[in-house]
Amino acid sequence: MAKVIGIDLGTTNSAVAVVDAGFPMLLANQDGKRLTPSVVHFDTASHPSAIGEEAARMGLLEPAQTVYSVKRFMGRRFEEVTQQEKEVHYPLNGSKGQPIKVALKDRCMLPEEVAAEILKSLKKTAEIALECSIEKAVITVPAYFNDAQRQATMEAGRLAGLQVERIINEPTAAALAYGLNKLKDQARIAVYDLGGGTFDITILELNEGVFRVLSTQGNTCLGGDDLDQAILDHFLQIIGKEVELDVVLEEQGALPRLREAAQKAKIALSTQASTAVKLPFLGKDFHFNEEFTREQLEQIALPVIDRTRPHCVRAMHDAGLETVDLDQVLLVGGQTRMPLVRKRVNAYFKCSVFEETRGNVRLGDTFHTPDGPTLNTGQNPDEAVALGAAIQGAILSGEIKHMTLLDVTPLSLGIETFGGLMNVLIPRNSTIPIKAGEVFTTAVDRQEETLIHVLQGEREKAADNWSLGRFMIPFENAPKGVPRLGVQFEIDANGVLNVLARDIHTGNEQILEFKSVIDVEDATVTQMVESAVEHAMEDLESRHWIENSLKAKTLLKAVKQSVDECSDVLDAHYLASVLEASSKLEGVLARENTEKRSGDTNSLKSAIKNLDEITQELAHIQLDRMAASYLDQEQEP
Ligand code: ADP
Ligand code: MG
Questions:
Q1: What protein residues have CB closer than 5 angstroms to ion ligand 2?
Q2: What's 417-465 look like in SS3?
Q3: Which fold has domain 224-301?
Q4: Phi and psi (nearest 5°) for 66?
Q5: Helices and strands, counts by H and E, the chain
Q6: What share of the chain is helix, strand, coil (3-state, %, to 5)?
Q7: Ligand 1 pocket by Cβ (under 6 Å)
Q8: Of 3.40.50.12160, 1.10.150.530, 3.40.50.2000, 3.30.420.40, which CATH number belongs to 4-178?
Q9: In this structure, are residues 396 and 159 in contact, taking their beta carbons and an 8 Å threshold?
């Protein structure tokens, strides 16, 4: 049976695991460590020369040739990446609409090419440990990775010479590693994953051995890195009080050294109450010497950690659950080793009365309340994801049986319809694999083809969502409303989307697979969900406006036609009132392209109602006319 290894390709750290004789275990790299920093150092000829810890060390000397946190850039376009995210120590390049690239001395690399170097090294780790060649892997991604990011991850695997059997969500993998299948028949679990660069919160349900993701939320730009940055800023503030800051920062490697010290201090303070930060010769004749306490750290860290809270609240809301409905809360990601994180998570989910006994928390402690969930820290939080990936690998290779795993779509998928609105075919948080379809028709006579515009996102207007792609589907020539166009979306077990469009009459069809980089706006998936919440009111307003404006346009056209037909019998006074109501409606409609028109939907609605009421009489006149002309026809010999 060919082994399928499990890989956690992390922003900060990566790990590889395998199930051996029924036991999942992490494999140690050549440094004897189970976690490999996701860092690649390139030599002057731009060839990868070191991976992991050695590369991280080289980063202090040659920051411009040392790539870290590359996962942040995977499958993303240049303009999608925020300025803050672009602040890395190595150069990036790219232009609008193009994928962001790492700009090495004489070579530009795609993020997935850099990630492939990390995967190659993990593959080698596994091959040395298992003494056989490895071809197949399961790789994990944050739950919020979109199609392009998942595709880039698959590509990285391919470039590393791996057959990627499955891409699975990190929280789902972690839940497997925690052995949730051994829980009682029905259980609900929250997985809180705070790593170096990403945060995910996922609510899972276990039902008779089958896992299902109820909801998933997160932020692709929130993690331990932000804490390191906050500590670094704090150090810079202290330095700035003592000496000219620029003089220190001019010194080569001063900033990376400070960043490393910030992270070391943070980690030390997870188990100690205070730590000495010593950086001799940080600047010319300047030595940085500071005592840094857990209390100081917690003050700095609290606002950063609490940025995860709204995501937890929303995930629970999306899942339709109260905290008392949860059985367990799992902690995943190295950053959850920090006592303050545990304390906060405990509070968010009302797990129990958290007792910070003897100043620190032992790994593996769990806390109970009579009705709240248990905070489960039974696994090493930064190893659980790789272990779970290995378990999934073993399920796929047939080594482990009787376990199924279902996943969900992180964002809604649909197509653009009339008036530029989003028509959702697969709602967010649908269990995958999934198939869904709808039948559409044409709005124009003799239309010969129509554009299918595939969208991903939570906003009401098509333009506010992400455009996954567009394609034309030809029609057999027919009057409007006659053609029948079936559009079907299918998401496979890897979360990859296939769109099929078929002219039902002729059977002509086209299938579009999303292998290309997504053409997205300047936003991340998380921002998408957040902005959907933030703009919920105005989005609804837009939808109402668009729906009513379509109605208004149809009405105006019909009224104009009736007026033309009946003008000879209309009373001048009445005609004037019809024309006035029409032009009033046109006036409101004309505000369509103005920036601010909040509240205008009501004016639009009342103008429609007004015209509708006034033209009742006109409608009767027209009906009478039609009836009369029928009678005339009948009376003709
Ligand atoms: P990722 O999944 O993003 O690759 P990890 O799960 O490996 O990241 O978590 C890395 C983060 O965890 C880093 O920010 C690191 O500083 C932090 N971390 C690791 N160990 C500890 C610890 N003992 N205390 C506090 N933070 C820690
Ligand atoms: Mg992780």
A1: 10, 195
A2: EHHHEEEEEECCCCEECEEEEEEECCCCCCCCEEEEEEEECCCCEHHHC
A3: Actin; Chain A, domain 4 (3.90.640)
A4: -120, 115
A5: 17, 30
A6: 45, 25, 30
A7: 10-13, 195-198, 223-225, 263, 266-267, 270, 333-335, 337-338, 382
A8: 3.30.420.40
A9: no
420 phi and psi, to 5 degrees?
A: 75, 30
Is 613 a residue of the active site?
A: no
Q: What's the one-letter identity of residue 485?
A: L
Which residue among 71, 120, 343, 461 is the active-site one?
71
- CATH of region 413-519: 2.60.34.10
The pLDDT, as a whole number, for residue 636 is 47
Of the ligands numbered here, which is closest to the C-alpha atom of 13?
Answer: 1
pLDDT at 376: 85
**Given 8, 80, 147, 460, the catalytic residue:** 8
DSSP code of 77?
A: B
**Amino acid (one-letter) located at 563:** V
**pLDDT per residue as tens digits for the range 432-489:** 777 888 887 777 777 777 888 998 888 888 888 888 888 888 777 777 777 788 888 8
Report, in angstroms and rounded to the nearest whole number, the Rg of the chain calculated over CA atoms. 30
Ligand nearest to the CA of 143: 2
Q: Are the CB atoms for 526 and 144 separated by under 8 Å? A: yes
Our CA dihedral for 392, 397, 402, 404, rounded to 10 degrees, sits at 40
Per-residue model confidence as pLDDT tens digits over 324-359: 999 899 999 999 999 999 999 999 998 854 433 333
**CA contacts within 13 A on the Cβ side of 56:** 15
> Do 253 and 234 form a contact (C-beta atoms < 8 A)?
no
What length is written for the chain?
A: 637
Q: Are 451 and 505 in contact (CB under 8 A)?
A: no
Q: Could you write out the DSSP letters of every residue in 156-211?
A: HHHHTT-EEEEEEEHHHHHHHHTTGGGS-SEEEEEEEEE-SS-EEEEEEEEETTEE
**Which residue in 112, 155, 193, 416 is the catalytic one?**
193
